[in-house]
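quick one, 269 residues, struct below
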Amino acid sequence: MQNYKYLKDLRNRIAIVTGASSGLGEQIAYQLAKRGAIVVVCARRMDRLEVVSQRCRELSGRLSTAMELDVARPEQIEQVIEQVENELGPIDVLINDAGFGLMENALDFKMDIAEKMFRVNVLGLMYMTKYAALKMSVRKRGAIVNIASVAGKIATPKSAVYSATKAAVLGYSNALRLELKPLGISVLTVNPGPIKTDFFNIADKSGHYLENVGLFVLDPEETAEKVVKAIGTSRRELNLPYVFQAMYHFYQFCPWVGDYLAGNLFNKK
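---
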């Protein structure tokens, strides 16, 4: 039995969630709490985090704590990991959810924002993973969940930079999974489509994207439940909604048709 399978029971297991002040990260924190985990919620907005942490305590009947963290700052990441390990105990689960996007044509995209997006979406995730996995590797157990995006598999117009960051997360996660498996650590990559969250308040300048792709929009609570349910299993990827998995295979096997669909049917930005 792989060591990570003990995490099917999350009672009293310590779980860290980044990007937990809102959206999918917040809902994942609640789902972990419902399963009895000790949830550490991290983000930049401490006022929001305190509310989320309080709700986690109500749901779990256990400890939950909020920690201010900007994943664009590696020194903060290392400090948070050390603080959790020293004050709460061994980290069992890491959920890398922090990230942001912006829908804009590549030629109009400001490169300082592109650099920030890579710093948060990719490098922040890598730093967080490394520092947590180093602790997990000593104990030969743990689970890491990286929230990527279907945009990393099926790119559409105005998503060039965002898709590039998520494709990087996919590549990193695929290699990481193979490296960490012998150490008893599982790596799950989650590739959701559009989720009805505050993410699009920044990402979507038009304000109509979710309305235009309504058929494919995910509910954050239901998505979070599926993510947490996959912890403690050998599942390597979770693609949501499930129809996107079929779309991806079609995109690969019939690239010219895939480009047509991505540039027209799915181009709702």
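The longest strand covers residues 185-192.
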